[in-house]
Amino acid sequence: MIKKFIDKLLGKPAAATGKKASPLGKRVEIPADVHGIDPDLLDERAVKVVKTLTDAGFEAYIVGGAVRDLLLGVRPKDFDVATNATPQQVKGLFRRAFIIGRRFEIVHVVYGRGREHEVIEVSTFRALPTAATETVAGNEKTSKSELQGKAHAVDASGRVLRDNVWGPQVEDAARRDFTVNAMYYDPQRRLVVDYHGGLADAKSKLLRMIGDPETRYREDPVRIIRAVRFAAKLGFTLEPSTLAPVKASAALLANVPASRLFDEMIKLLQTGHSLASIAQLKKLGLGRGVFAVLDAMLTETGDLPDGVRGKFVTQAFEDTDRRVKEGRGVSPSFMLACMLWHEVLDRWTKIRNGGEPPVPALAQAIDAVFDARIGDISGRGKLAADMREIWMMQTRFERRTGSGVFSLIEQPRYRAGFDFLRLRADAGEIDPALADWWEDFALGSDDDRQALLADARASQQKQPRVVRAPRPSAEAEAPADDEADTVVDAPAKKRRRRRRKPGGGGEGAGAPAPAAE
């Protein structure tokens, strides 16, 4: 009897009794002494949102991945709230709240301003699909008129295009993807509400789909990518029936809007487990053909390449993962610039070999790579501007004379450009002395900088030059062909001792800031 009670609290399935379990699951309330969530890990603003809603007479809970992370003893990066209040009712309770989204209508409650602002995402409990769900022939773009006014609609493959039908919490839990993401936490009563055994799966590190996995992947193919991300981030194993349809369902990702798929790729690679995510993609048979950006970087077998190119992107991912784990910001533009750099380099070389001057050739190569790998996605303009600046800066680093060096270190993106240069040097793509010179210049005093510029000018003047041998007299013996010219090389420049090594790469992390003038 006691064992049955404990199993119930932990969400373990009951022994077979001949009765079919409800597809909706069964509500189990788990007290604090069983779930063990540390209240100190909670976000006070998320708790405030819950309290505001409950004080107004609504149900409200912290939900989803935040509850999963809390159960694992990890402070969540984001806190979401679920409630039975409609989006309009939620919006009316908060001073700064905005209803967003067409596919899933949700409310963003905003606290603070500028870079320090925080968004608590509030969703309304949703109902399960019914037989009355409407099917449209096209997609989000081609069937806008048909979707107008519809609360729930799917395309021909079963992918959900609209899902704004409200329902009870038990149905909201059943329509979530994985059991570990379908738990609700009441921070005031310190209760976890679990309908599908999510607590037991979290403790077993098991990723289990709610409902029929094949159907759930058809409803939203992005769940495949989410499965990869959670497996890599949390070290979870996909439950066999959840894993089985993954590879066959991957073709459905072609129907997902490019912008949404691109955003999912960024999430996958910026959770602090980028290399593990790439390995997980290969393990599930998704190493190629899912993300065009990854296809540009990986080999035909879905692996990172050998040699300098593989070392370069590996170091970039390691630095990104380290920054995430240290709680520092990461920039998708820097990471993408690293991922696509060698395709840009290949195209640049080809265009230059065709007779185009270096700078216009690089601009053409960048445009071609963006068209091939990024496409027409939301936010492309900002990404393109940042990445282009990082790449174009690499040609400017080669020139270490004149006033251009001073204007370069004053560029807003200089730190990112230098980090990129340092990665290239550390990977063996370029001479480390070039990165050392720029590090010394950025950190140096006015006198140091003038000395460095003088050294750079002298180095350029001492390039190898050909000295003609004197014309022999009529009596002198004619020199052999290989002795007719003597090449006199300038002595090699002594490498400067580095002042200090900047921190890891990625969006200017640890790059030297220009010295105060």
From TrEMBL:
GO MF terms listed in the record are: poly(A) RNA polymerase activity
**Keywords, A to Z?**
ATP-binding, mRNA processing, Nucleotide-binding, Nucleotidyltransferase, RNA-binding, Transcription, Transferase
Q: Where is the composition biased (Basic residues)?
A: 493-502
Q: What is its EC number?
A: 2.7.7.19
Catalysed reactions, as listed in the record: RNA(n) + ATP = RNA(n)-3'-adenine ribonucleotide + diphosphate
- Domain tRNA nucleotidyltransferase/poly(A) polymerase RNA and SrmB- binding: from-to ranges: 235-296
Recorded hits in SUPFAM superfamilies, A to Z, give:
Nucleotidyltransferase, Poly A polymerase C-terminal region-like
Please give the InterPro entries that the UniProt record associates with this protein: NT_sf, PolA_pol_head_dom, PolA_pol_I, PolyA_pol_arg_C_dom, PolyA_RNA-bd, tRNA_ntf/polyA_polymerase_I
Indicate whether RNA-binding appears among the record's keywords: yes
Q: Which Pfam families match?
A: PolyA_pol, PolyA_pol_arg_C, PolyA_pol_RNAbd
Entry's CDD domains? Answer: NT_ClassII-CCAase
Which intervals carry biased composition (Low complexity)?
467-477
Ranges where the Poly A polymerase head domain occurs: 60-208
The source's superkingdom equals Bacteria
As recorded in UniProt, coiled-coil segments are none
Q: What does this protein do?
A: Adds poly(A) tail to the 3' end of many RNAs, which usually targets these RNAs for decay. Plays a significant role in the global control of gene expression, through influencing the rate of transcript degradation, and in the general RNA quality control.
Q: Which family does it belong to?
A: Belongs to the tRNA nucleotidyltransferase/poly(A) polymerase family.
The protein here is known as: Poly(A) polymerase I
* Originating organism: Pelomonas candidula
Q: Which gene encodes it?
A: pcnB
